[in-house]
Specification:
The protein is α+β, with helices and mostly antiparallel strands and 154 residues long. It is built from three helices and seven strands, in the order βααββββββα. The model has no long low-confidence stretch (mean pLDDT 85).
Amino acid sequence: MKLNYSGQEHVKAPPAAVWAFVRDPERVARCLPDVQDVQVKDATHMDATVQVGVGMVRGKFKFGIEVLPEEDTGRVNVKVHGGGLGSVVDLLAGATVVDNGDGTTTLDWTGDATMRGPVATVGGRLLDAQAQKLIQKTFQNMSANVEATSGTLA
């Protein structure tokens, strides 16, 4: 099952604060909804355990996450691979940090995911709607965290 998403998140913080936040793998991972554990391996790699629920199917998924900031383009890409419950997820998501010129920032984001296994089979449309909500919630969490700490990140 292939899934594609895009959207925007308005952040009430300057681009420098947003950029500093999105470059930090642990901070980004902590914004995932229902994250239970994060183990940072180095400046761009981490492992995360997330509680997942799609319809009646619930359990833990383990993901390897790589954060790839491209400072020259103002974009950060995130590669996610892992799974659980006999299912596998591959996700490539990214966000461009856009200076609004008024001390705020917009994150223009996209995400492409492929899911294989029982969760994709059982989840169907529920999975699509849930994935969209999870991606939006992740960016909302990032925005709230950046806004709360922007005085210390810039």
